[in-house]
Amino acid sequence: MFSALSSSIQGTLQRFHRMMEHALDEALDAADEALRPPQGRGGDDASSSSSAAATASASTAGHQNPNPARAADFTPLVGDVHAVKRALMRPPCSLPIELVISILDYAEYWPVLARAERHDRVRYTAATTPGNSVADLYLASPPLPVPEGEDGELVRATPREVRFCIRSRDQGWVSQDRRGLAIGCRSVHPYEHSYSWFDASIIRPTSSIGPSTAIPPALPHLDYDTNPVAKPADAVQQFASASLRFVPRTLAKQRENEETGLLEEVHETEEVGLWKLQSNRVAERGYRVHRILWKEGDGGDADGFVEALQAGDKVGVWARAMFPGWANEVDGMAIEVRGSVI
Q: Does the global pTM surpass 0.70?
């Protein structure tokens, strides 16, 4: 009996897998057809070529603009997703909406829900504050979209991944040459004992947000030049006055992600939920681009971040440095949130 049941289940799973593959092929074909430009619109192609050439030129010149999406990536628009959804639900596929959602998520066919870029250079020096610690919200994304109607049905945007791209460096030197230095029998990692780094946080309105909300709360003005803060927790009241708060994460989770015991002193996890995002390489004079991808279900530094996101939230990145002589020089950053819209 159990052998027959097992065989029946395996057969069902195999048919389901084949159906998903067929439906996925249909989805990609439909998306390709929807995005194919009409005949005679050479101007659009020329514009794309010009943009690609400009990007290549900028990279060759040595100044790479942060961009979380690589050139080869295809990112659908919201309209593309709805077009593919309708195509899969009509003959010859005639798939139920639950299977359509599974297929699109399996294919990671997710549009951009929120995106922000900044390209000006800012140098954050730890010695700016009396405590030799500095933090500044260098960039925050627009609020994630709230549920809205599409063809008479409620459409919810569910975040699935967050992409960060950071171009930065530390002060470019340390008091002791670390090249070839070893602790015991272990070589020093180029990111170890780096006190120039970035934290991510989720900024949420204190009141509920819906389609009727005309203007979402604006971020408070944190003036690094005239009144720098030592750590994000010092800005809690300023955010509260702007009807915003930080989504917390537990102290236990944060401690699991600490690279050094010293950094525990500046991660204010009860007041401000901070996820360790990226450190600068130690004593490197040139700028380096770091691309970080956090997805649902990721552990480690990203544990719980994507799952905590909801409508109205903003994703923020704090530039940080600690101890005399340490600096965090940011030359550009981009944040991109992608997710399903069904």
A: yes
